[in-house]
What does this fold into?
Amino acid sequence: NAGVTQTPKFQVLKTGQSMTLQCAQDMNHNSMYWYRQDPGMGLRLIYYSASEGTTDKGEVPNGYNVSRLNKREFSLRLESAAPSQTSVYFCASKGRYSYNEQFFGPGTRLTVL
Amino acid sequence: GENGEQHPSTLSVQEGDSAVIKCTYSDSASNYFPWYKQELGKRPQLIIDIRSNVGEKKDQRIAVTLNKTAKHFSLHITETQPEDSAVYFCAASITGNTGKLIFGQGTTLQVKP
It folds into this structure.
């Protein structure tokens, strides 16, 4: 099992450009999450999907959109990138119970110039 | 913000000493408290977790204690080794069945040989 995979690993954008970060998991998990990680600020939740077909905003959703394409895949889209979105983005997935572990992907390092 | 409080932000110890990291949470309904370790450039990985129905859990050199009354929990690492050097994040579950976690800001632990 590959666990949680993310593409791309690195990306540089110019202000105003758009892009989609891809995430997939092969653990048959119901819930999937997108976080951003900035120095000194821990992991902040952008959007999550508790189950296939549902998505909800997290703590910092502005400037992002998501799509839960199917049970395996959960993508994050930046429609018009801004320098404030320079960050490391992690996708995670979790089984059905609240005490189940969240498994993280390897991350995408995004720089917006 | 919604992040839990985590202290200290940096911690430097000599190899063989103990390290303690503390976190507080605000949601009295939180029932799951994981700790993640993140090495430089890597993804966060779960090292230990505790559910609200127990007060302490131990796994070799790592232990977690939970005080529900005071709403705080702590990570204890004994006999520290250089490979314990990393950033450690606490997290607490949020009310509801979404599996959402609120993360602390992180503690950078340096173990000096």
In short: Chain A has no helices and eleven strands.
